[in-house]
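Sample A.
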Amino acid sequence: MIRALVPGDAADLQAFVRRLSPASRRQRFQSGLNELYPALLEQLTRAGGHGHAAFVAVANANGCETIIGEARYAPSVEDPGATEFAVAVADEWQHIGLGTALIGRLVAQACRSRISRLYGDVLQDNRGMLSLAKKLGFRIGAHPDEAWLARVALDLRASRESTLRATPQPAAATLARRSTAGSSPAAISA
């Protein structure tokens, strides 16, 4: 199930990050951190306000929820008018469509929030994320400052327009439409 992240998820989010392999933590945070330091954990679990969204994918075993994926966006500090996103999926849950579902939820929320553009900075060696971004209609280009990063970007104005026209759509626009059609905004099964 995918649902909004709430402040009470702090301990579970920290446990999720600790369970990620070193490679997955490096791909998500672009550093070698082993866990979220307290100020970052506070910032990530209190993501709210205009232009912010955070979702978690959870698995339920014996009545206990475990975070198995996390996705978020926030206004860019570098590029006014743009919004930066990030996503991570637990290693044992990768390659089954969960990343696609999380990004779909982000795109749907961003469209509802009238956000113009989503972008993310991806390590050049993160072939899985680069392939997924391409499949979902993100434009992949060079990072403006760092050669070890690629920048993936999606123009949401074009996605909204193609959704409204009901013409062939980029995969991300299709995901946005599916994420909002006939589903509760609080929970979508992945």
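Sample B.
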Amino acid sequence: MSKDVTLSRIKELGLLAVLRGPSEALTIKMVEALVAGGVIGIEVTYSTPNAPMVVRELHEKYGSEIVLGMGTLTEPKHARQALEAGASFLVSPHTDPELAGAMTATGLATMMGATTPSEVVRARKLGSDIVKLFPGSLGGPAYLKAIRDPLPDIPLMPTGGVRIENIAAWFAAGAVAVGAGGSLCPRALAEAGEFDKISDRARLYVDAVRKAR
């Protein structure tokens, strides 16, 4: 999947599930439950055990049926590992020049983390295709809007603090997409084997995004 296609699909979907899975096997089952509920934008974080192996298995299973990426990249080597595993986008919680260079060198879609206006601009200049506003809970939708007012040409995606109750507010503030973690796919449900409930939550989130846009 080309970078342009990946970015187009992310913006079209408007929702990425951010997974910090408790184990390799449970993370794969979490993704299966999300896909069954209609969530096909999947970000597997490096804090997930054996994250590259999880992404490789998901890539082999779903191919282009889902938009699959890796998040919480903190070291330059993570970018190459993610590319080799089959990720189509990369996400970091912060913006670091060395890491940014490794991410952009892969040719994949990139989302670097930023909080302040200066960080947002820096991330964009270092090659971030979409800037990840993180943690979104710090300022909420009003903060995203305040940043977008003077910087309307920088696409922003909040992660952290995204809940079904505020999805409409995030999009009204100008988000191009949202990243939802524990509120969308709680680890506790996976550990309890309640994957049907994860699918139910996925349907609610997809519907909320659709209505918000």
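B remarks: The first strand starts at residue 15 and ends at 19. Residues 195-212 form the longest helix (18 residues).
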